[in-house]
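Hey,
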Amino acid sequence: MNVKTSLLTAVFGQIIIGAWLGASSAPALSQQKPVAALDRVVAVVNSQVITASQLSRRVDMITRQIGSRPGQLPPADVLEKQVLERLIIERVQEQKARELGISVDDGQLDNAIGNIAKENRLSPAELRSRVEAQGDKYESFREQVRAEIVRLRLREREVDSKVQVSDADIDAYLAGHDASAVTPPEYLVAQILLRVSERASRQEVELQQQRGEDLERQLRTGADFEALRKQYPDNSAGDMGWRRADELPQLFALAVAPLQLGQYSTLLRSPAGFHILKLLDKRGGATPANTPIMQTKVRHILIKPSATLSEAEVERRVADIKNRLTAGSDDFAALAQQYSADGSAAQGGDLGWIYPGDTVPEFEHAMDALEPGQVSQPVTTRFGVHLIQVLERRQDVASPERQRQAARQVLRAKRIETATEAWMMELRDEAYVEYRLDSK
């Protein structure tokens, strides 16, 4: 078992837990709706319907997720339209997954939920209690997790597997960074998006462009960017997160680079529609690319639960190994070879030289707190329970191989994001969708 971070797994866990285990003090919009309206159909997606009760529950989940940041929520009617569009896109993906025979069995689902519980320092029973304490049915939570996994697997098949990064792409990327002699800056950007379908008529495109130009005029006269952004259902709450220029679409990167904090871009046209960007914050961009990085040579012993090893037995075995190491009666490498449940066991648990960010946060935090030669207390991650020993540390620049690996990851992530957006728009445009949200 590799302890390297899985970005998709981390994001997946945050999405599910954030929505289902969010602040319980937030208002529950679904409780404000008349009971009689809960069963009406609000949209038809191909042959599948979305009901008002399903929409109301999802709005309620998002409201709890935002919780202590109510200012990020758009008006209730706009939020409802945003959430409905998200549900439509989810339904289209789920229908496509069924066509391709993509499914998740109960055993795989149980493992995923177990990992979610571990990442949030909960037992499966505590996770269930937390979900039910919010007034939600645990079976609904399970099916939501199942659906998320199915959509992820569909995207991996239809998008991720087709994205390629060539050696020439990496050479060009590294050449550009070497020329600048600095690490790329990171930008915190918000946007107003006026979406335009690929099948939109000329009149529809012109209408969205006129709306964008009107937004530009309002911003120039002092209108609030956030208030304008919330008026349009295609805009999700919050910002786009911290992104390097090479992680932004090229159109965005070129537009954002000359902006000062708080400034807006001009109206931009992309395949997705019309955009206005606002630069919220900026960091980095002044550190030499060859600045030494602290590396740690580390080894570990990993014990994980299985069909024949209960969690209680895992704890007992880890405690026994820790006592033997403390007493000095056994060698760390020998115990790793005997007990460790991952691919490093044959090397005595040696993980080699680790860069910051290579491991999951719990592992890295424990590792960083150790002196060379010191063995950690048991550390629990989603992979199992670890005993960690730091062998030595050094300051070094990233090796050429490491630089190329990092460049490949950056380019691939950027291309996957762009390809995913295009793929989702294509699925959405191919679907038959009938809106009934405003019908009574």
